[in-house]
Amino acid sequence: xxxxxxxxxxxxxxxxxxxxxxxxxxxxxxxxxxxxxxxxxxxxxxxxxxxxxxxxxxxxxxxxxxxxxxxxxxxxxxxxxxxxxxxxxxxxxxxxxxxxxxxxxxxxxxxxxxxxxxxxxxxxxxxxxxxxxxxxxxxxxxxxxxxxxxxxxxxxxxxxxxxxxxxxxxxxxxxxxxxxxxxxxxxxxxxxxxxxxxxxxxxxxxxxxxxxxxxxxxxxxxxxxxxxxxxxxxxxxxxxxxxxxxxxxxxxxxxxxxxxxxxxxxxxxxxxxxxxxxxxxxxxxxxxxxxxxxxxxxxxxxxxxxxxxxxxxxxxxxxxxx
Amino acid sequence: xxxxxxxxxxxxxxxxxxxxxxxxxxxxxxxxxxxxxxxxxxxxxxxxxxxxxxxxxxxxxxxxxxxxxxxxxxxxxxxxxxxxxxxxxxxxxxxxxxxxxxxxxxxxxxxxxxxxxxxxxxxxxxxxxxxxxxxxxxxxxxxxxxxxxxxxxxxxxxxxxxxxxxxxxxxxxxxxxxxxxxxxxxxxxxxxxxxxxxxxxxxxxxxxxxxxxxxxxxxxxxxxxxxxxxxxxxxxxxxxxxxxxxxxxxxxxxxxxxxxxxxxx
Amino acid sequence: xxxxxxxxxxxxxxxxxxxxxxxxxxxxxxxxxxxxxxxxxxxxxxxxxxxxxxxxxxxxxxxxxxxxxxxxxxxxxxxxxxxxxxxxxxxxxxxxxxxxxxxxxxxxxxxxxxxxxxxxxxxxxxxxxxxxxxxxxxxxxxxxxxxxxxxxxxxxxxxxxxxxxxxxxxxxxxxxxxxxxxxxxxxxxxxxxxxxxxxxxxxxxxxxxxxxxxxxxxxxxxxxxxxxxxxxxxxxxxxxxxxx
Lengths: 322, 265, 244
Prior knowledge:
The structure holds three protein chains of three kinds. Chain A folds into two domains: 3-228, no CATH class; 229-306, no CATH class. Chain A is built from 13 helices and two strands. Chain A has helices at residues 3-28, 36-51, 69-94, 97-117, 119-122, 136-139, 143-170, 172-182, 184-189, 194-220, 230-243, 248-264, 277-297; strands spanning 128-129, 222-223. In chain A, helix 2 (36-51) packs antiparallel against helix 3 (69-94). Chain A is globular and about 70 Å long. Chain B folds into two domains: 1-95 and 177-190 and 202-258, P-loop containing nucleotide triphosphate hydrolases (Rossmann fold); 96-158, no CATH class. Chain B contains ten helices and ten strands. Chain B is globular, with a radius of gyration of 20 Å. Chain B starts with 7 loop residues before the first strand and ends in a 9-residue tail after the last helix. Chain C is of the alpha/beta class. In chain C, helix 6 packs parallel to helix 7. The radius of gyration of chain C is 17 Å and the shape is globular. The two termini of chain C are 23 Å apart. The chains are: A mainly alpha, B alpha/beta, C alpha/beta. Chains in contact: A-B, B-C. The interface between A and B is large, with 41 and 51 residues.
């Protein structure tokens, strides 16, 4: 397998996990959360500061504890969930729809600015680096083999998260989340604590985002604000939209399609001499066009949310006592 | 006004709510008898919907007491009141559109343990799975009883207005609350469904749920209620069986309005 | 429809109007007439379709059948903003003034489609509504409920309509203000505008109406001079459900 294919599949698996987490908040609970990528970023940053060594001046950042990778991942997920809890407590109390989205946008912007400007946190614009081949030394892999190992690890993680989501989806908890999306007042009239339930979904989503971020940090071996660009974010949200919000298979399909689109859409176009940026810009335009077309003609995505069909035979009504 | 020797499902005393300077509900008091269908009628702007919002926890009263099963409900959020056994519907049908009819009915019961995140992850234990299966069977029975079997697996959002109301009724039968408050159930429903709805309401009483129904459709009120409360200008102006209210001057005045000018036109 | 040759010329004619909001029609084959310098009222129990009828006449919803003519011109199904040019002004029940604009600015906005003479018209209306003249420079949000309704009425009159359609003008007002509004409506009638009104307070409305139509379940049921219908047993029965 070529190195290119390995890296595509690895990145695809990680994006798949990100998309599944976003699906919990946007697909099932129905809230258009703009802070989501922030949780991915927090997961990545925290993984790095927990695994790499202490800062060597002029670099500045917190922690630097050189913990084993799995421990760092746990710490990263916990931190994402904690930050998600804070944002959720504020944003989910009374706000819905566009107002909720604006508040989450504010939250993610705060996160972005702090990460990029508050140098003492994560070394500002330089970001963090140095997470090389985590767990590779346990098995003594060489560089080549490690790529395959990490691909396998990412795929396994994706499958585990996917199965986890499948379970949640068909559970009563998952259905309760969806009743909130469908009609909140009716859900409250039938005993659901809207605020608490939404919070649970939100923190769950944030945690999954943090987990994806932990893997992302290992994949990139680094993280800084340039890995936090609008294009990445838009591709993520597009994947969920195009694939089908609320349907985990759809989300996976969406990641596949958007991933392919991003990488391959302009592959076969000739480079225009003296204007190398045109092809890059064209790629962005194509993604944008796909997004607009789907929003206009197929907002439910390629694979809309499935119904659970009850196949048991009909029941004869019991004789009525009037 | 006391209803002799009948237990009450709900008692409201001195309920008040104002918005800006306007009193939507002012010193409203009434009792809904247990095991009966009580009507709540009155002209537009009488405060009926606000009163329901106050009772069910969707709005906070400025004053007054709401007594249900020996507890005071003022200040409790809607989900707590619902868990205590008081369920309400809304003026427009509020089914969960993307969920199927049977999912709508099954989700009518709130189950703290089975709905927890923990159970979501780890799945249900054997005892809970049995309870869940029994619940599904019960849901199917209710759906059959209300004549919704043909649309059991359809998304609730694709049904007609009358069918959506029946789904709401199925949910109520499933939840088996002690009291259900129906907010204009005949609104937007074809009059031919009236008898089906009336029978469904009788089904509630038969299964131990007391009913309060707000309606403008007075023949429907006459058909289903044993006791009627009339509201106007935010307060109760008359109570009694429907027949007696028709000849009440206060009720006629409320519906036809009072003369405010000095008559020179 | 009975011929009443002794009464003023018709301004608005509605023939067999049917309309709804998608689904079964709310009003079915309703006919009525509004005359110059007369108050015409539409009354009926809740759910009769009174508000729907007004909206179908005023172009806010599209009728599925029937005809509406103003001063002889067919205006059926025309968009609401075109109706103003045809001589019809509609005053809705809520959101009928711009709260952040002053009284004068509101009236100015009301006269937007006029070809000229806006300041003169405003002065004319200030004579008709002296309470508004006092508050000409105040923001509409500072007005009382009754004054706001008067501003909405005045704004509707800015375009010199042949027919003024009022959707529950005294809704939510204290009896004192209701009386005031009816006084103003009488004054408007005296300027030879045809007034079509629906109201929650049936008795008060019937006292002022030269002619009233009783609508039940979306159809014409009774009609006659307002004062006659006031004492009509059948009307009372319709309201309190003795007949269906």
